[in-house]
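User: Show me a protein chain along with its predicted structure.
Assistant: Here is one chain, sequence first, then structure tokens.
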Amino acid sequence: MIHFTPPPEVHLGPVTLNCHGTFFLLGAVTAWVWTRARVPREYHVHLDNLASWLTLGGIVGARAFYVLLNPSMLLDPLSVLAIWEGGLVSYGGFFGALAAWWLYLRWNNLPRELFNDAVGPPALAGWGVGRIGCFLNWWNEYGTVTAVPWGLVVGSDPPRHPVMLYLAIGHILAALTAARLGRRWGVRADGLALMGYGLTRFTLDFWRDYDPVSLRLGSQALAGVFLVAGLFLVMKGRMPDRSAPSPSAE
């Protein structure tokens, strides 16, 4: 077994930095840089604008989903805003960022298939980087009790699977695989990324200690929806041509 102590928060004047927020910021930067490399230069100005939209949408969605799962927080409205204390749900972040993404593309009449294909693997890789922060934070996202040699012991708790680290590795590997197979097979990389996310999350949720267990069933059901949606995109069409930007690009 491995004894593990989560890193402490860092206080810089009025600003408090913790692993959770820091790694999700690094994940957002990772996704933005890789997406820029996957779209024509003419569209980079839109990606620059989208960065703030996606960050805001992701944080609001992730926090809103957490509050829905913990409605007692509404008794203390100020606690809803205290995201530095932890409490972000990945599915909520996905839907929040997706809503911001869709609204921006529609408002600016941008080619959705090209942008969606470009952002799929980078978004999944960025989420994987963010999961490293979840692992280091080690708060409210525990793995099941285990006897494997790499089980982590935190404080007086029994050894547990580092399931958030599993998810981080799984998401990053799935993103790299989706990008590679998308080029090799000429299919939608965003569909492959959705399939990779759904399969990874569905499988690894068996090693996450949900309380109550019904939360696991809901999470795995959503993972199944992502898997089916990704398969639909892969079967629907081929990878869009990134070499021919539309006249509307700025």
